[in-house]
Sequence to fold (176 residues):
Amino acid sequence: MNITSSRRRSPLLVLGVAALALLSACGNAASEPTTVEVSAVDFAFEGLPDTVAAGSTVVLTNDAPTELHELVAIRLPDDETRSAADIVATPEDLIALFPSVETVLIAPPGEDGKPVVGNGTLTEPGRYLIICAIPTGVDPSEYLAAAAESEGGPPDVPGGPPHFVHGMYAEITVHG
Ligand SMILES: [Cu+2]
Fold:
């Protein structure tokens, strides 16, 4: 009787240990910095997780056919509680956040992105706003040339509204 019952219990015990091991592995994975592969499309970021560990590095690929895209990561102030949608709807608030830009990756259509500010790494824990502010329909090579000359300022190139107006924004939380 005892042998039978211990045989019955044992698979459950094994499962329990396996589940604990899995939980602990997940816990470790979540706290380790990773490489986050993000794909830019017209007009959204794909593959962006809700949370990443501090020190994780974002890499960008542009999977759109013609539009230039960028990924601008802005560390939001700790007391900022509004949603990404609410912040991008208020241009003057968005401009006020520019000094908090942590990294900018820019990618021509069909190509991998290059960092132009920072190196893609999100070091400080907190909430980050992710936007693409490239003017709609801009000529990719014309914009990149103008950006190289403007040394950090917004390049003066004719184009339509910035991509975040079409919904190209997101947010991500970086945890320590
Ligand atoms: Cu874009």
Q: What stands out?
A: The longest strand covers residues 35-41. The chain has a mean pLDDT of 87. Strands lie at 35-41, 44-46, 51-53, 56-62, 69-75, 101-107, 114-117, 121-122, 126-131, 169-175. DSSP finds four helices and ten strands in the chain.
